[in-house]
Amino acid sequence: MSYVIGVDVGGTFTDAVLDDGAGTVVAAKAPSTPPDYSEGVLDVLEVLAQQLGRPIEEMLADTHHIAHGTTSSLNALVMGNVPPVGFLTTKGHRDSIYIMNVEGRYLGGAPEQLQNVMGQSKSHGLIPKRHALEVIERVDRDGNIIVPLDEEAARHSIRALLDDGLKAIAVSLLWSFRNPRHEQRIRDLVHEIDPSIYVALSSEISPRIREFARNATTIMSTQIGPGLRDYLGALETRLRERKLSGPLLVMQSNGGAVTAAEAPNNAISTVGSVLTGGVVGAVSLGRQLGHRNVIATDVGGTTFLVGLVVDGEPVRTSTTIINRHPINVPTLQVHAIGSGGGAIAWLDAGGNLQIGPHSAQAVPGPACYGQGGTEPTNADANLVLGILPERGLLGGRKPLDKSLAREAIRTRIAEPLGLSVEDAAAAIYAVQNAQTGDLLRKTVVEAGHDPRDFVLYAFGGSGPAHCAAYAAEIGVREVIVPLGQVASAFSAYGLAASNVVLAAELSDPTTMPMDPARAEANFHKLERRVRAALRRQGLTFSRVEVEREIDMRYGAQLAEVATLVPEGELDSTTMSTATANFEQRYAELYGEGAGFRDAGIQAITFRVRATGVLPFSSELPELEGAGSTDASVAQIGTRPVCLDGQLGYVDTDVYDYSKLRAGHVLPGPAILEVPTTTVVIPHRTVGVVDRLGNLTITPVN
Fold it and tell me: For residue range 408-448, what is the model confidence (pLDDT) as tens digits?
């Protein structure tokens, strides 16, 4: 017996899924344990072991690997909870990280912020100026050394940073992606003085053109690298003590994993790790169900996440924004807002009801948890509305107190608005569904897609309670709640289903059509790099898949579009095909006729992505057929539930998921209780259990 385990550490709950590759899939959920999230990881693994009926040591001894997704890196950056780091750059270029180009004024801002030009500022620098120092050196755009590195001056700058108590240094020199020799020598100099210092080089973290983004990416990676190294090292030690035999893998933003030993070396690649698990799971489940276009939605305790799968592949991006800074990280494109089950309901200065982005998180949690929280949340509203069972979550292991939920809503929302507690709870539910629908509209419709061409997957602890409502906001007619054995731990299932994915890139700007030999040389260099990195993982792969792409743009533009390059030997024909692929993709993104070929086409950054496919099946097992559509055998009673403020409370059938079989039909309104989540089947919809145990919700015409 050999297991694969996915562990998804969220702000409120830690989820885990175990898959033996032979039809047994077990899911578990436990509260997250900030600030030491490793405690929650061990807690949820203990729950998995209990469900298997085995000691945790035996389970881990039979585990092929654990794939771990963590929010710690992203949360540390977003909240500014990072240690001070030093920054070394080429003389004359220190202030680039404070000037921030024009981008520093608007990146990541809401539309109203973009319009308020007078209110914009660049006051969000990454590090104090005393921690940003210069070294004397110069490499030109072709990689030629114009001014050799002044090693004595470099030692002086390094000692100044270390004397200030810094334990990590980011190095980003001008044009280092064309020739990294000076950066590598500076690392040697740092370690000659103090071998324990963490050093990150831009030529390894972000070998791309554009100084500001490369600097920011390297600094942020340095800010989280030591903490990630310490966390993963301690977690792996504790797992080894409990007899884990296989490796601990860490999910990356690109949708693939890397070993815990490798992850801190390029820490910035893990910032979206926990966000991508659900998208990877959607790709895997979509293959089983034959769905090529999927909207993956995850409503956890803290956030609402949306990712797209188009024509069987997740939508990717080469850059993301964190704290108004561009970060060069190839990632699955996931949009997020603070609108999870623990999102706090509040009134703004005008008396308007708002939900999030602040969350009650795991501690103190929603008011109904009885852990000292006093702010009303989505979870409190759902309990008052009858959506959540009064006996509690996790099959009763997490008790809920309805009186505390009512009191929080009464004092903070109902009385100030002159509403009853019930009407205030219904308003919270409606606003939650509306704002999640708005993010869906932005992600799908504003990207040029027709929602009617997609199936929506809904997961997370709170997703199934809201999915039918927010899907209706954009006109999606088929919603699937992945249940079976994975239920609300679907993102953890995605982690368990993931493979090892490594990417390497380099900028080599040139005009198309380019010399095929030049492109071939770039790709060969990158492929050698990723294959060597795959070997360092120490894993056996069933096969290795390699993809090549070039970031291209029209002349006089700044933003590039990632464009796939055909497989095989490159020649003038394949390069012409790559150019045609760029123009087609550009038209898909920005509309037919938006391109301007007369401006010329430029190739900027070359990228190779290698996937080490692990020898493990991730298909979910099929459920026993019901033999009838009548689901009354699974009905466990009725309770008054309010799903529509105008209809009020309606006696609603409640079903026990464990008693359902494939083919059972649940007419709405209905509530389906699963040990780790609750599914709402609204009025004028119907739910059908499919062959994998998922619930499909569709409108009734």
Answer: 999 999 999 999 999 999 999 999 999 999 989 988 988 88
Per-residue buried b or exposed e for 422-440, using 16+ beta carbons within 10 Å of the residue's own CB: bbbbbbbbbbbbebbbebb
**Is the backbone of residue 93 left (phi > 0), alpha (psi -120 to 50) or beta?**
alpha
Separation between Cα atoms, residue 198 and residue 191, nearest integer Å: 9
Cis peptide before 195 (omega within 30 of 0): no
Is 412 in a helix, a strand, or coil?
helix
* pLDDT one-digit tens code per residue, 614-660: 887 667 778 888 888 999 999 999 999 998 888 899 999 999 998 99
Q: Please name which of 324, 358, 364, 329 lies closest in space to residue 344, comparing C-alpha atoms.
A: 358
**Which residue do the tokens 């004024």 mark?**
105
462 DSSP 8-state letter: S
Q: Is the pLDDT of residue 334 over 90?
A: no
The helix or strand, by DSSP H or E, that contains position 63, with its residue range, turns out to be: strand 63-70
Q: Quick one: DSSP state of residue 444?
A: I
3-state secondary structure 667-689: ECCEEEEECCEEEEECCCEEEEE
Q: What is the mean pLDDT of residues 280-304?
A: 89
70 membership: H or E segment, kind and range = strand 63-70
pTM (2 d.p.): 0.83
Work out the pLDDT band at 113, boundaries 50, 70, 90: low
Distance of CA 685 to the CA centre of its chain: 31
Residue recorded with tokens 């998921």: 657
Query: What CA–CA distances, in Å, run from 484 to 27, 152, 473, 622?
Result: 10, 64, 27, 8
Residue type at 246 in one-letter notation: G
Query: b or e along 245-256 (b: 16 or more beta carbons within 10 Å of the residue's beta carbon)?
Result: ebbbbbbbbbbb
Which amino acid is located at 136 in the chain? Answer: I
**641: which residues sit within 8 A by CB, 6+ positions away?**
385, 386, 387, 649, 650, 652, 669, 671
- Is residue 693 a contact partner of residue 674, using CB atoms and an 8 Å limit? no
Residues in contact with 79: Cβ distance below 8 Å, sequence separation at least 6, in sequence order: none
The residues, ordered by sequence, that sit 6+ positions from 352 with a Cβ below 8 Å of its Cβ are none
Find the Cα–Cα–Cα–Cα dihedral 674, 679, 685, 690, rounded to 10°.
Answer: -40
Q: Which amino acid is at 555?
A: G
- For residues 327 and 362, what is the distance between their CA atoms, to the nearest angstrom? 29
CA distance 8 to 17: 9
Pairing state of beta strands 145-147 and 665-667?
unpaired
Alpha-carbon distance values, 115 to 101, 111, 442 (Å): 18, 6, 19
Distance of CA 616 to the CA centre of its chain: 23
CA distance 461 to 464: 7
Structure tokens belonging to residue 576: 């012409």
Q: Is the separation of the CB atoms in 279 and 299 below 8 Å? A: no
Which H or E element spans position 175?
none
Q: DSSP string covering 543-593, please?
A: EEEEEEEEEEEETT----EEEEE-SSS--HHHHHHHHHHHHHHHHHHH-TT
CB 526, CB 607: distance < 8 Å: yes
Report which DSSP code applies to 364. T
Q: Can you tell me the distance from the alpha carbon of 649 to that of 641, in angstroms, rounded to the nearest whole number?
A: 5
Judged by average pLDDT, the poorest of 168-172, 328-332, 463-467 is 328-332
